[in-house]
Amino acid sequence: MSGKITIALDAMGGDNAPSEICKGANSACKEFDDIEIILTGDTERIKSCLEPHPRIHIEHACEIIDPDEHPANAIRKKRDSSLRVAMEMVRRGDAQGCISAGSTGAIVAGGVLVVGRIEGIDRPALGVPIPSMDNIAFTLDVGATVRCKPENLLQFAQMGSIYSRKILGVPNPEVKLLSNGSEDIKGDDTVLAARELIESQGNLNFGGYIEGNEVLFGKADVVVCEGFNGNIALKLGEGLIQGLKQMLSEEVNKSLMAKAGMLMLYPAVKKLLARFSYEKYGGTPLLGVKGAVLKAHGRSKSPAIVSAISAARKFIAEDGITQINREITK
Amino acid sequence: MSGKITIALDAMGGDNAPSEICKGANSACKEFDDIEIILTGDTERIKSCLEPHPRIHIEHACEIIDPDEHPANAIRKKRDSSLRVAMEMVRRGDAQGCISAGSTGAIVAGGVLVVGRIEGIDRPALGVPIPSMDNIAFTLDVGATVRCKPENLLQFAQMGSIYSRKILGVPNPEVKLLSNGSEDIKGDDTVLAARELIESQGNLNFGGYIEGNEVLFGKADVVVCEGFNGNIALKLGEGLIQGLKQMLSEEVNKSLMAKAGMLMLYPAVKKLLARFSYEKYGGTPLLGVKGAVLKAHGRSKSPAIVSAISAARKFIAEDGITQINREITK
Q1: A224 with B224: CB under 8 angstroms?
Q2: Contact A180 B216 (CB under 8 A)
């Protein structure tokens, strides 16, 4: 089935570009025989680290978008940047999806300005699959749409439900709204109105509110929130895991017995941390745009890139865009 | 200095009332010779578990506010509840502060409706001292005021700064606003406007934005946010610590070596977790009301009650209310 699925891959985005991006492209082509990859970026630099492969192509782009640049300005002005060139390929239909480990803001801006929104979707959402106790809590939005209207949150719920079902394989995903308490009287005006709106739609498996402490305990398959809250909560969680690791290692270093204990415990700790590894869950999809646009982690090495390619491939194979279209126009 | 500081203590609030509350009152009176405690609640039940002490008194109250009740309704209707009676004592000046391990909502409602707001403060804030890498990040609001105006956030910044300086002992506390990124262009409308407002005041040590992942790394002494976000973030953090503990113990139980390792590591883990123990940091002050009103953790046992009493005592001794008054009327 060679060439069925074409993915544009920003070779210049992220901390380990272009070498780890190229390595990831190679590994993915070995793993999946139905994909073609177009690497966008500086041809010379890409060639210097790419193992040639018949299904990997290069599209030259001479500019790079810096993480510090104003996202929308950068997308508008740097027409020959590796990210914009990748997104143009999706817009023209030369690729069905694109992936970048570069600036999140620029990916969101490019998704809206270049790839374009799906008709009926007012705002896009970035969704993160958060591994919880016995499931994956697909959480959106974590930063694409800072503040939302109730209608936006309804659309996030619809898109999240499709992603959870089609890509993460949850048969009848339960959707909840992130709030400051589980009782009906809780919530701010936006969340209260969104709750009524989602309930009145009736075609979602909607479970009401979820509190911050329940996310990790398998209490919802899809967690819906405004980008501002989602972003703060996600980063807080990341910081907490990082902080606990650092504080524990400080404590462990104070005692020889603790050091020995840590060595014996290490395989279990490693397994635990692997559950939270971004390498496993294949990037953050930008839902609501006319293509499988995924943000890979900025620190991505080749396994994380393979994982993102795998998610994009699945999204394209399952025809995620048509699914969202159908749900929205219902 | 006997009898200088009088604290009303809701004997019936929390999971371990009244026995652990009474025990805490006894221990606190042994530790501090300048306090008087008035336990509010069912006299018979209190007497059955209280070790008599010349500086502990009982004020009878025959009702209890249930955690499931609508907070404001409960405060209005249950005039003879242990919580309302404690708050009435502060209102009348019979006590300078009160503490309850009962319903957070009812404590906030009682603080506003019974104790009353400090003149010039539009909304109260609940502040939590979050132990970070090398300092305490005093975070407010975590649930008293769901959505805020920029003016509310400015007042939270002012009150938080005073609490950090006077009660937590930070000489020149750096105040930051919780946001979805550290760059100036980030933030929602409320946070952007609050930032300008706080900067224009000029009398705070203001450091701009703080992201979720920085809170635990000593990047701010005071973290200001809307109650909705603060509540979600705080609960997410609590849930994450709880979830990690549970997942780790599941992994550990699969291997004998890991079990042995865990035993050897346990003292270090215990030390680490003790840093995050609510027993140490003395309850959550409700700032902005005319008295030292503190919420103790619902699961409080006697050491947590002692700790809350210690914080209330310090707040009263440092004349926290006058300090806030002075700052607000500047």
Answers
A1: no
A2: no
